[in-house]
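Q: My labmate handed me this sequence with no annotations at all. I'd like to see what the chain might look like in three dimensions before we decide whether it's worth expressing. Could you predict it?
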Amino acid sequence: MSKVHYYNSRLKIYYETVKVVAAKNLKLRYKNSMLGFLWTLINPLFLLLIFIFVFRHVVSDIKNYPLYVTSGLILWTFFVSSSNQIVNKILESGSILKSVNVPAIIFPLSALVSNFVNLLISLIPFIGIMVFYGFRPDWSTLLFIPAILLFTIFTFGVSLTLSCLNVFFRDVEMFWSTITPALFYATPVVYRVPVQMEKTMRFNPFSHYMNLFHTILYDGIVPGINSWLICLGLSTFVLLFSLFVYRKLKRDFISNF
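A: Here is what I predict for the chain of 257 residues:
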């Protein structure tokens, strides 16, 4: 058997494993639940209602505030849901990794896939809400596809790094669940960045993605090349860094379960 054939067969096995585990995650998530998938919508819709009916009176400088909030909140909910699940994924899969010879990265990747499927389904009602508030899609709206892919890669990179570190330092999960609410308010998801804070906000990587989403979905224009290059660079760097961390630490996973 040639090396190419061997690696192709291994990749096929891993691909099928990711599909099976992701499907299992989705089934277990809604097992014995009366509302099922609707729970995926309840939390972001609840937050959306709060910001629409309360904060729109505070943030009066944003025209059509409900549309602005929706275009950012969809993706932030995906990030929080994915990262909170993935951060503990390698650790909670310890018993499987001890008995079955599969790459540990399969479990975080499967969690990302299941959350991405949830995101795609939840886009349907959210787009309906956006249309109700004046969203009029055109050809430039298709740029949302590469934007969401870049953000998904970034989300996986951040989450995989946290998941690896959580095997060795169990405080990582607690730290992340504590800091994510602060990150929400430190990121322009539901507000525009004040002029005096623009330079500071550049150091927040999430702000670049939110700017990309708001430009496409709220402003309805094509983002500048600099916005794309920054997000591409961030996604590439974070993914490569997470894979580096994974390769360095994976040998010691089992001894720390």
